[in-house]
Amino acid sequence: MAPYDNESDSNGRGRDLLVAGIVLVMALSTSFLAEPRQQRISAALQVSVLRPFIATQERLEQSRIGAAEADSLMALVDSLSSRLSTQSALRDENRNLRALLQIAERAGPEYLPATLLRPGTPGSESMFLVDRGARDGLVEGSPVVSAHGLVGVVREVRERNSVGIDWSHPEFRASAMLADGLVYGLVENRRGAFREEDRLLLNGIPFNEPVAPASLVVTSGLGGIYPRGIPIGRLDALADQEGTWRKSFWLVPMVHPGAATHVLVLRGGGAGDVTEVWIADSPSGDSIATEGDGR
Amino acid sequence: MSSIGRPRAWVLALLLFTLHFLLHIGFSFGRGAPDLLTLALLLLAREISIGRAGLTGFVFGLCEDALSVLAFGANSIAMTLIGIAGAATRDLFVGDSRAFLISYVFIGKLTRDLIHWIAVGEGLRQPFVEQVVIEGGIAALYLAVIGVVVAEVWGVGRDLA
């Protein structure tokens, strides 16, 4: 126990008790102070001794409100992003449909509007379901096109729907030519290390035939499957050459199969020339855009 | 409860004072935070004179009353009396054991709540059993435990069995 030091004597003790008594009286009297005076004392303590603690509470409260507002704003941003992304998809779809409508008007009634569905199951890559079938006039080998060019071909026709393959299917082949009709070849699929690497190859071009870079490649109409003039892609880089008699080029496809949803399907055979359908606005064909353009 | 020396007692009281208002006002913990102000006064009262203990209690009580709108003065009275009584216990109890520390803090806190309950007046206080016996008892027990922890950390009664 600590000693009292100087307060241990009786005088000191008496003074101490006197101080205690005075303080006790003061304490008791605080309850009976007039309310304005109590408020002044409270205010003085709040802006002095208690100020740091009150300020801490205010800062914490502001932080809490800030966090709540941040959550609210984040939810708002998420909602807007979701809405914008939906609108973006709708805008794309609208643009595709408008383009398809123009093509359909030019192509005539033989081209039937249809919707492609992708099963999305293992083994069904490069295949699609068409919501049109034999009762709509579809036959095996009916070309499937979009506003930008060739998507694929119908391989199996049922009463109400059909099954087709797009150009990324290993069995896809199309007789093709440059848009000017001077150079002919065969377009086929080349598998990449993974599906996104699948590419189109224009093969069998005579070695000495001059070809302009980025030339438009369209179906040639040979073979009776695809009518002449459906855009397939544009020449990209030289892929291969054999001796001095043959060369092949990679193509930049006009249509990305995964993005093709609304299409036209040609009823009946693939005879005729539809060149004017796709390049009606540009005789040279230079203005035809691939599907990725304009996005 | 052995002496921790006046300077250290004042430092401890200041720390507990700061922590009390930081927890109660700054962090708004409310009743979840222990009544460290009473603990500070009880521990300090064992080291200083009755007059100073009363004055310290009065100041502590006024600080609490500053945030009490309807019962201004109740805390001042309670803390002043606790300060005086705590200092007076030096003459009555040597208190060199942990059991004394626990009892001292427990009874001190319970008495403080009792005085406050009386001083607050009839219009504002809750039923005696609810406020003093149950809530006060729990709060006193809570503070006694905290008191032991503080004593261990700060070296109060470290030489005790």
Describe the biggest sheet of chain B?
Answer: none
Structural class of chain B, by secondary structure, is mainly alpha
Strand order of the largest sheet of chain A: 1-2-5-4-3-12
Order of helices and strands of chain B: HHHHHH
CATH class descriptor name of the domain at 112-278 in chain A: Mainly Beta
The number of distinct structural domains of chain B comes to 1
Uncertain ranges of chain B:
none
Which shape of chain A, going by the Cα principal axes? Answer: rod-shaped
Task: Write a short abstract of this structure.
The complex is a heterodimer of chains A (295) and B (161). Chain A has 295 residues and is of the alpha+beta class. Chain A is built from 4 helices and 12 strands.
What does this structure look like?
The complex is a heterodimer of chains A (295) and B (161). Chain A has helices at 10-30, 35-46, 51-107, 275-279, and strands at residues 111-117, 127-130, 143-145, 150-157, 162-166, 173-178, 184-190, 199-206, 216-219, 231-242, 246-253, 262-266. Chain A has a domain at 112-278: Thrombin, subunit H (Beta Barrel), CATH 2.40.10. With 295 residues, chain A is α+β, with helices and mostly antiparallel strands. Chain B is mainly alpha-helical and 161 residues long. Chain B has one domain (7-154). Helix content of chain B is 72%, strand content 0%. Chain B has 6 helices and no strands. Chain B has helices spanning 6-26, 36-45, 50-65, 74-92, 98-120, 128-154. In chain B, α2 (36-45) packs antiparallel against α3 (50-65), α2 packs across α5 (98-120) and α4 (74-92) runs antiparallel to α5.
